[in-house]
Amino acid sequence: MADEPVVRRRVVKAASGISEARVNGQKTQSQYQPYKDAAWGFINHWYPAVFSKELAEDEVKGIQICGIPIVLRRVDGKVYALKDQCLHRGVRLSEKPMCFNKKTISCWYHGFTFDLKDGKLSTIVANPDDKLVGTTGLTSYPTEEVAGMVFVFVREDDFADEDVPPLSQDLPFRFPENSERFPHPLWPAAPSLLDADAVGHGMHRTGYGNWRIACENGFDNAHILVHKDNTIVHAMEWVLPLGILPTSDDCITVVEDEQGPKGMMQWLFTEKWAPVLENESLGLKVEGLKGRFYRTSVVLPGVLMVENWPGEHIVQYEWYVPITDDLHEYWEVLVKVCPTEKERADFQYKFDRVYKPLCLHGFNDCDLYAREAMQNFYADGTGWDDEQLVATDISPITWRKLASRWNRGIAKPGKGVAGSVKTHSIRFKDTAAGKPPGYFVEQIED
Amino acid sequence: MSQTHTVTFRFADGASRAIDVAEDETLLDAALAGGVPLMHQCRSGSCSSCIATICEGDTSNQPGSSSTLLASEYEAGHRLLCVSRAQSDCTFDLSYGSAEGGVVPVEVNAFVNAIEPIASNVVKLSLELAEGNWLSFKPGQFVQIEVPGVGKLRSYSPVSTEADLPTLELLIRLLPEGVMSSWLKSGANVDDVVKLKGPYGAFFLREKRRAPHIFVAGGTGLAPVLSMIDRMRQIGGRKPPMLLSFGCATSDALFYLDELELRRQWLPGLDTRICVDREPDSCYHNGSPVSALRPEDVTDPDTVAYLCGPQGMIDAATRRLIELGVAPENVFAEQFVPSN
């Protein structure tokens, strides 16, 4: 007996008991299990990478999306994107950009040099005849640049070029194509980034938390309470309800067109949703003169559209781009079609003076802290089981189900990248030095 | 023209491949060019992935190359194929099988997590690999379980996937007088420890085939097939259309219908047909899962099919699929043999 090794159980966490009666009972939860598995995001989708103005000609920048490090370089106006992890020893090329010509980027450490177009290892600076040359390379990522934004198709290493869908399949519903399907008397056609003369102004910053929690906040119709005291609401004398309740089974339309974005449209400010303007027991009543009507929709991989917001003929887009499982890049972009120079200048002025300080900051800052306030509850995984959802949560539940069905892949936990180990001394050192975990690569200064 | 030699690679599963190699090319280059599935990575003599043992013949090192093999390892017959050339006809032994990945079966312990009857004659056995134990498998492959107290081995294909490890789920058909069935009915308890061996079998999902997939499953033959479907879901990227035809004799023998409904929800490209062949009045397709196949199911000449169930079903499904236009080499099948 003495030489029989002891057989031990793994240390396991106890399953939590969930009642079937709950909105998010076990059965409902299993319908969106793939979504619960997507802590690192959905891969094989288009994501915003940088604003065009953030990447000058010949500039190199490193970012991370869905646990994949990506280096961007602009050459002759065109943006190229490669995996930002040298295949030799894993160093990030973007940490110390080294480019000897317009076709390649070299690793600053041992000189592995990659073709910008396809990522192939085209030479090694001090070892040009090495056998490895030409046989291997880094994954490349297709890019698109529209209305002042650079998008990158973040894919798995073996995702085929011919399967890359057009950017429009990962952007919100467009109008007037959908005007008949989703009519609205106040704004017959919301603008789109892809429209001629579209101008996008916005900002992006790092959110400390999982991307799904952030994303759900954007279209959860009960969350507008956090905006009750926002300056813009009162300065403009807007009527913003305390909340909005679904009154009909068809309050949300799920869109699953074969060629097109997959997502859902909420019929806000129609008879399918009732705004709540008063809570008698608390003595609360919304005062205001001007209805501020808007409509939210969300499409994969997690793109919010708020039509008619924060002004007429403007649309607000938001992305919650996964960086790791506990970090995302929060994008807020306002889009307006500006055919003339004067309209462009006016939109820019209004953005700088009103929208950016009072909306993207003043208003949406509340969303940012509300999302961060939910993080501890969900970070260890128990929140998904323990959350007690209510009627208005039909929106996140519908989203979870459709995202489970239509995503193009669930990102694997980051391998060998920033944030795959949360407790590494580098993360502590950087944070102590005043550089919290973020989106862009900090470049080495010589 | 340099001289050529015949080089033979013997895989651990008994498969053997011979190729002609010129004296001035490396064995790895020649083998890969000839389609021999050798494990390899750096191709420059450092990582040792392409290590093999020479049994007959002579090799030389590629001029100018370096190798990380120790002199003693070289003496013992080890060679790194990426930096070796043939000087004569040679034979090499490889430590892995000819199926990609070169998985070697292992023996592990697992705890019983749950024993759940899921149909009139099917039990789901949930196991969890013990601390320090690991057994990976391709979807469709099977493991052997030693029936406690009896010492007999029984084979089952996990219905779960590698992604669910350390948990493994087996679907076990209850047989009167079966040793596994007797143990499940009267002896087995949660927290019992069982011995597992595996993985085995060449019935596994061939990944990255882009043509439509047809799965035909009878009874607990659903297990390997569902493991494959789940793997297809996990792989991500563009998925081929999939059809699952699954049947049992009677509706009270059916199981996993909720699980299949979930797959239909998660996979827009999955069509499922549930069949019952001894109950004309049930709400399911009346007939065998083979009879549910239709001519319009096979429109692509590269269609791939995976079949698992009783021999009769497999024979009928193979005939039918070939008749509908599936190439015989694209039909993969495994019969399950009930054993007492």
Automatic annotation (TrEMBL), chain A:
Q: Where in the cell is it found?
A: Membrane
InterPro entries xrefs: Cholesterol_7-desaturase, Homotrim_ring_OHase_catalytic, Rieske_2Fe-2S, Rieske_2Fe-2S_sf
In this chain the Rieske domain maps to 46-152
Q: Does the keyword NADP apply?
A: no
Entry GO MF terms: 2 iron, 2 sulfur cluster binding; metal ion binding; oxidoreductase activity
Sorted keywords for this record are: 2Fe-2S, Iron, Iron-sulfur, Membrane, Metal-binding, Oxidoreductase, Transmembrane, Transmembrane helix
Keyword Cell membrane in record: no
Q: Which domain of life is it from?
A: Bacteria
Q: Name one Pfam family in it.
A: Rieske
Gene3D superfamilies in the record, alphabetically? 2.20.25.10, 2.20.25.680, Naphthalene 1,2-dioxygenase Alpha Subunit, Chain A, domain 1
An example of a Gene Ontology cellular component annotation for this protein is: cytoplasm
Listed name of the protein = 2Fe-2S ferredoxin
Organism of origin: Parazoarcus communis
Automatic annotation (TrEMBL), chain B:
**Keyword annotations for this protein?**
2Fe-2S, Iron, Iron-sulfur, Metal-binding, Monooxygenase, Oxidoreductase
Supply the Gene3D superfamilies for this chain: 3.10.20.30, Nucleotide-binding domain of ferredoxin-NADP reductase (FNR) module, Translation factors
Q: Where is the FAD-binding FR-type domain?
A: 105-206
**InterPro entries per the UniProt record, alphabetical:** 2Fe-2S_ferredoxin-like_sf, 2Fe-2S_ferredoxin-type, 2Fe2S_fd_BS, Beta-grasp_dom_sf, Cbr1-like_FAD-bd_dom, FAD-bd_FR_type, Flavoprot_Pyr_Nucl_cyt_Rdtase, FNR_nucleotide-bd
Give a single Pfam family match: Fer2
Q: Does the keyword Transcription regulation apply?
A: no
**One GO MF term attached to the UniProt entry:** monooxygenase activity
What are the 2Fe-2S ferredoxin-type domain coordinates in residue numbering?
5-98
Query: SUPFAM superfamilies from the entry?
Result: 2Fe-2S ferredoxin-like, Ferredoxin reductase-like, C-terminal NADP-linked domain, Riboflavin synthase domain-like
Cofactor(s) demanded: [2Fe-2S] cluster; FAD
CDD domains (alphabetical): fer2
Q: What protein is this chain from?
A: Methane monooxygenase
Which organism is the protein's source?
Parazoarcus communis
